[in-house]
Amino acid sequence: MSTQFKVDIHKTLRSADREFKLHARFESGSQRVVVYGSSGAGKSQMMKAVAGLMTPDSGRIELAGRCLFDSSTGVNVPVQQRKVAYLFQDYALFPHLNVRQNIGFGLQRGWRNPLSRADSEAIRYWINAFELGHVAHQYPHELSGGQRQRVALARALAPQPDALLLDEPFAALDPGLRERMREELGALQRRLAIPMLMITHDPEDVRAFGEHVLRMENGSIFHVEESAA
Ligand SMILES: Nc1ncnc2c1ncn2[C@@H]1O[C@H](COP(=O)(O)OP(=O)(O)OP(=O)(O)O)[C@@H](O)[C@H]1O
């Protein structure tokens, strides 16, 4: 099994009255890695470092054989070039853009550039894949929770990322929808064979996606379980 994720980073975060030391170290050959742990454990900070939204003080990050960060050689691939999709907890859709425009956002190469033919086709593909055709011209506030989540996933996947990072992807959904979206995402991940790193508090997510489960507490990954699956 080839290495999908290889992370070994240090970061000290300081606020007025406290210091938080993050030391995230793990390696995985799995394409379904789940990180769980209590609130404030450092999960989001680790994810941000992989996405390039936080720069570690030292260490190295590798994704599917590609080095994204290495403090010893000065490598720090910019966010836009990491080819990593990051789905935030609240989906962070652009409120002033409709579904189609939200999905196309990451594809637009430059300000005011018209979409290329390939980009238009990509948008059509994802709109169909997530059954969003009937809401393509609606705005985020006119969508249901499940539709918003699908738009966010489509937007994340449209630029064909090398990895998918998900922070509590189902937390905002009601339980029935959560189960359905879990199934959809699980099937999609397998179909695309895209490495996925997921943060969650929910044991059901661990059960559904945790081929490799990492537990994080107090800034460190201290317990690692390899499932038999
Ligand atoms: N800019 C900052 N300066 C100082 N400390 C910070 C900063 N950002 C985050 N922290 C601290 O880093 C720790 C880890 O935060 P992080 O958001 O990674 O936790 P988490 O495990 O994702 O929690 P949750 O599950 O609640 O989202 C927290 O204790 C937080 O207070």
Distinctive features:
229 residues, five-stranded antiparallel β-sheet, alpha/beta, six-stranded mixed β-sheet, binds adenosine-5'-triphosphate
Explain what the structure shows.
- This protein has 229 residues and is of the alpha/beta class.
- The protein has a domain of 63 residues.
- It is 29% helix and 28% strand.
- The strands form 2 sheets. Strands 7-8-9-3-10-11 form a 6-stranded mixed beta sheet, with helices on both faces. A 5-stranded antiparallel beta sheet has the order 2-1-4-5-6, with helices on one face.
- A hairpin with a 2-residue loop joins strand 4 and strand 5.
- It is globular and about 45 Å long.
- The protein binds adenosine-5'-triphosphate (ATP).
Bound molecules: adenosine-5'-triphosphate
Q: Please tell me the overall pLDDT.
A: 88
What percent of residues adopt helix (DSSP H or I)? 25-40%
Strand order of the largest sheet: 7-8-9-3-10-11
Q: How is the main sheet built?
A: 6 strands, mixed
In whole angstroms, the N-to-C terminal distance is 14 Å
Helix- and strand-based class? Answer: alpha/beta
Q: Roughly how many Å is the radius of gyration? A: 18 Å
- What is the overall shape? globular
Number of strands: 11
Summarize the SSE layout with pairings.
Elements: E1 5-14, E2 19-28, E3 32-36, H1 43-51, E4 58-63, E5 66-70, E6 75-76, E7 84-87, H2 99-104, H3 117-129, H4 145-157, E8 163-167, H5 175-192, E9 196-200, H6 203-209, E10 212-217, E11 220-226
Parallel strand pairs: 3-9, 3-10, 7-8, 8-9
Antiparallel strand pairs: 1-2, 1-4, 4-5, 5-6, 10-11
Helix pairs in contact: 3-4
This protein binds adenosine-5'-triphosphate (ATP).
Adenosine-5'-triphosphate (ATP) binds at residues 13-15, 20, 37, 39-45.
Pfam family, one: ABC_tran
Protein name: Molybdate transport system ATP-binding protein
Keywords: ATP-binding, Cell membrane, Membrane, Nucleotide-binding, Transport
